[in-house]
Amino acid sequence: MHLECPNASIHLADALEKLKAVIRHPGNQMDRQGCSKRANCDIYYSCHAERREFGCGFVVSRRLRHHVSNFTPVSERLATNRVKARFFNLSIICAHAPTEEKDDAAKDAFYARLEDTYDRCPNHDVKIILGDFNAKVGRERIFDRTVGQFSLHETTSNNGFRLIDFAAARNMVVSSTRFRHLDIHKATWLSPDQKTRNQMDHVVIDGRHASSVMDVRTFRGVNIDSDHYLVAAKIRMRLCRAKNVRPITQRKLDVTRLRSQRTTTAYSTHLSELLHQPTPLPVDAGGLWAHISHSMRAAAETAIGFKRPPTRNQWYDEECRVAAAAKNAAYRRTLQSGARKEERRIFRRKKREKEKRECEELEVLQDRNDARKFYQQVNRLTHGFKTGASNCRDENGNLVTDTQCTLRLWRAHFSKLLAGDDGTNPAVGGSSPIPPIDDNVDIPLPSHDGVRVAIMRLKNNKAAGADGLPAEEPAAKS
């Protein structure tokens, strides 16, 4: 599945959400390596560094995103995801093997890289390899212990022998050919002429834990715009308890509403009521500011309100969903060509309409001489979508996706950076921190005129502090 298509990620997330799948392997083509966090899933991907070809990765549902401990991109054909469980952790390897037409050198290089990736996984982990092996596994009796007796094919292909040799050498079994199903539930690939069906996508697991795989079958009814069918494996595994702690984020106030005189008056009135309540006031400056900032925050939440988070794919409306549903219905009837063209035509039209509206908004911003919003809109349109800085690399160049590990890396980086060249700054990570200085000097409270001058010197359109109060809010009151 090509995830650079405009609606591919939406269809993939919706289709797999219906199946209640928690870990999925999409054959994707995205940019380089990383993790893209969505509302209902996280997409981990490993692609070619320069060309948009091949690629592999994982789609992890929101129910399991807190169990992922480490994601390791190896190449455009290999990636590893480690999941925390109760008794044994899971090391899941995503693989995309070369086709039968490739030369032996490319195949040997892939399996050598796969062997090295397998050996790097912890020995006590349950190791699962899944993906597109481009391998036909036959029903020869000599391979019954490794592949079972229920394959779609009678004989084994060259790639199939390579897969069996790799699995047998490591006491692994091919679980996708060990369950009795109809042939239509075994085929994983359909030729463009819709006449040839092969079973080339497989699930391989350690022989010790082969009984944990309850079932492996193909779901043909799920339309993911690919010549491969969706392969689902039901694995019985007890995961560890992970606390689903949501990060505390400060919501931004919609300060643009302060341009309205009605909103400004309502905010000033409500703030005056809160400040003049008959409650005992603290005598120190810190306590007074805590009381004032809490009152300003409460008044702003009531009178001003918060900014709405930006929505992705605003052009994907109900008409697009109807077109996608029509295409899916046609796909189930194997008459999908006309519906697919109609769907793409509607998607292109919706995107053009959205781009036209954005150009009109730019003209309005230019006429109003609102340079800040104008350049923000221009940068967003020219730079395109960015996944965000949710992951980083350690000193060895390995990609780190875990939130706590990322925070520890940034803390160590800034500690080393702020400590200087000799690393003797005791204020950052030193053994003997500088004690606080108390000279018993009373600091007088600021005057009313001094506070007013300080407020008037604040610059607009700057990030709010720890209290979440932007500069426009006190300036509107003053």
From TrEMBL:
* Stored SUPFAM superfamilies: DNase I-like
Region described as Disordered: spans on this chain: 421-440
Origin, by domain of life? Eukaryota
Show the CDD domains listed in the entry: L1-EN (cd09076)
Q: Which PANTHER family match?
A: BUCENTAUR RELATED (PTHR23227), CRANIOFACIAL DEVELOPMENT PROTEIN 2-LIKE (PTHR23227:SF67)
Q: What is the protein name stated in its UniProt record? A: Uncharacterized protein LOC127565056
Organism annotation: Drosophila albomicans
Q: What gene name is listed for this protein?
A: LOC127565056
